[in-house]
Amino acid sequence: MVDLGWAVLIIAAAGLVRGYGGFGGGLVTIPLLTLIYGPIEAYAMAAIIAVVGYAQLVPRAVRIAEWTELAPTLIAVTIATPLGVVALVIADPEVIRRLIAVFVLFGATLLATGWVYRGNRGALSGGITGALCGGISGVAGVGGPPLVVYFLSAPVSADVQRASILIGSGYTSLLMLAALAIGAGIDSDVIWRAAILIPVSFIGTWLGARSFAFAPHAIYRRFATGLLFVIGLAVIVL
After folding, report:
1. pLDDT at 1 (0 to 100)
2. What is the pTM of this model?
């Protein structure tokens, strides 16, 4: 029960992050739940909870996202995510934990240094972004940074940036869940824990989304940058 109590706190924080930023729930959830339950169980629980959380946010995002850029990314995610999950299932758990730290810190560094992608924005760049996102998500559960970096550099409003990130992150979570269910199995313990935590995530996501409505544009990029940087350092320490 102590483990479940910690999980409740972790999921509440992740819901707030996901609701406000449109991403980052997995960056909070997976490193910390992995310390409690192990990589595969943590990923499965996080994927179930994330899919429910994103379901709250995606309907509006679908209407305002930039689909011309988003479509190639989603196609690449579809191919790369299951391949990453295969690597997760066969890899050593300690290797996975180290990969989590490396990938999160890499994304944090990109945003914290203010680096902005200024190359061509087309099918090729979107596909590469999707492949990185899907592959890293599959193997380490934290593939959001490439997606965030790419769409935060798009010359559109913060609302549209957030919508594209939301859809890409939500779709990746759905693919992760499907691949884990098929390839690794999701046992009853994972399901009942997720069932307990879903309402916590729902409330946290709703509160985070409401926060974005009150303070969106001026601080959105700073929030995204700071989030990845802090979590990256935290994962290294843990």
Report:
1. 63
2. 0.77
